[in-house]
Amino acid sequence: MHAREYATGATPGVFGVRMRSASARRNRRRGEQTMIDVYDNETGKLIGSITEADLKVLIDALEEESATDQDYYITPETIDLVGDGRATDHLLHLLRGALGTKDGVEIRWQRRA
C-alpha cells in the first residue's frame, strides 16, 4: 500500500479530494459492494447492514434535514412508505426489527471504512 493510501483504497488527490486507487476501482467492478451499517441512534447498537441500493431507497423516500444527514426517524408508517415495492425484503425486515414494539426509533447509517 502506498504511504498515503488509506485502507479503503482512497488517496488524497488534488485539493484534498480523496480518489480511489485503480485496484480499489477494479475490485468494486468485480461485484464488491460497499456495505452500510445501520445503528440505533439512541443506544449505538448495530442493527444490521444494508446495501447502497437499500440506502438509496431510504434517501429517496425519507426527509433529510441536510445533505450530510445520516439519520432517520422510523415509524410503522415509514416502513409502509418504503415498502411500496421499492425496498428489499432485507431492508424491511431490518427496519421492523429496529422498530420492534416501539412507536418510533431513530436510526443512523454509516458506510464501512
Explained architecture:
The chain is of the alpha+beta class and 113 residues long. It folds into two domains: 1-32, no CATH class; 36-111, no CATH class. It contains four helices and six strands. The chain has helices at residues 22-29, 52-61, 76-82, 89-99, and strands at residues 10-12, 18-20, 36-40, 46-50, 71-74, 105-111. The strands form two sheets. It has a four-stranded antiparallel beta sheet. It has a two-stranded antiparallel sheet with strand order 1-2. The longest helix has 11 residues, at 89-99.
**Into which percent range does the helicity of residues fall?**
25-40%
Helix and strand sequence: EEHEEHEHHE
What's the mean pLDDT score? 80
Largest sheet, spatial ordering of strands: 4-3-6-5
Count of helical stretches: 4
Radius of gyration: 16 Å
The computed structural class is: alpha+beta
Low-pLDDT windows of residues: 1-28
Which geometry do the CA atoms define?
Answer: globular
Provide the β-strand percentage band. Answer: 15-25%
User: N- to C-terminal separation?
Assistant: 16 Å
Task: Write out key terms for the chains shown.
113 residues, alpha+beta, 2 domains, two-stranded antiparallel ribbon, 4 helices, 24% strand, disordered N terminus
